[in-house]
Specification:
- The protein is an all-alpha fold.
- Helix 3 (28-49) runs antiparallel to helix 7 (102-113), helix 3 (28-49) packs across helix 8 (117-141) and helix 10 runs antiparallel to helix 11.
- The protein has helices at 4-8, 11-24, 28-49, 53-65, 74-78, 84-98, 102-113, 117-141, 147-157, 164-175, 184-196, 203-209.
- The protein contains 12 helices and no strands.
């Protein structure tokens, strides 16, 4: 199963980053930084939500509504800007996934990417339906129909994010309550570990965001 950051580095991922940047009027490099950190965080939040019966049921329902068709016409989607229905859908998705943590997560991402909270929110609203399309398509291919399958799907797409430090990093962003400084120590640990093993899910991302290679 392809990991989410592998997808962002693929030709489709580059189309998504440039399309989201163009639709929201943001710099492509900063948009890429936001998405590279945000998509694993959103998936981690979904993984958390899927541990409860109500959360798993809600996520299954959302994935059933997002069959991946949005991925078939990315050029049309981004041509002239993403339409209001997609952005509105993105807002609802973020509300369901992050709940009361949404503002805090956006603040942390903005602090680390050098972007204001409103711009981060626009990027996430535009990208959320695409992420759900990716997950919906993968869930159909993997025939996911229960909470165990959901957790396996999300864990698999989080790819190399299996070390405790990397898991802690994603958890910390969700729980930082808008204070980006609380993730710095964990980021340093992830960077150190990724340098030793030449990579890792978040190593390259963190090197760019924190100015450390």
């Amino acid at each position: 199963m392809e990991g989410i950051l592998d997808l962002l580095n693929s030709p489709m991922g580059k189309t998504i980053i440039s399309g989201v940047a163009g639709s929201t009027g943001q710099d492509s490099n900063k948009t890429g930084s936001v998405l590279t950190m945000a998509l694993p965080v959103l998936m981690k939040a979904m993984e958390r939500n899927a541990t409860t019966p109500q959360g798993a049921e809600g996520l299954m329902g959302a994935l059933n509504k997002h069959d991946g068709g949005i991925l078939n016409n990315l050029d049309d989607l981004f041509s002239g800007g993403v339409n209001k229905e997609v952005v509105d859908d993105g807002g609802k998705i973020l509300g369901h996934i992050l709940g009361s943590k949404q503002q805090g997560v956006q603040q942390v991402l903005g602090q680390k990417a050098g972007m204001d909270v409103g711009a981060v929110g626009n990027i996430l609203q535009t990208a959320a339906p695409i992420l759900m399309g990716l997950l919906g398509k993968q869930s159909r291919q993997s025939e996911v129909n229960n909470s165990g399958g959901l957790e396996s799907l999300l864990g698999g797409m989080l790819g190399g994010s299996k070390t405790q430090n990397e898991q802690n990093f994603l958890e910390k962003i969700l729980d930082a309550d808008g204070d980006g400084s609380v993730i710095d120590d964990v980021a340093d640990m992830v960077l150190g570990a990724s340098q030793k093993k030449s990579g890792g899910l978040l190593g390259g991302l963190l090197g760019g965001l924190f100015g450390k290679k």
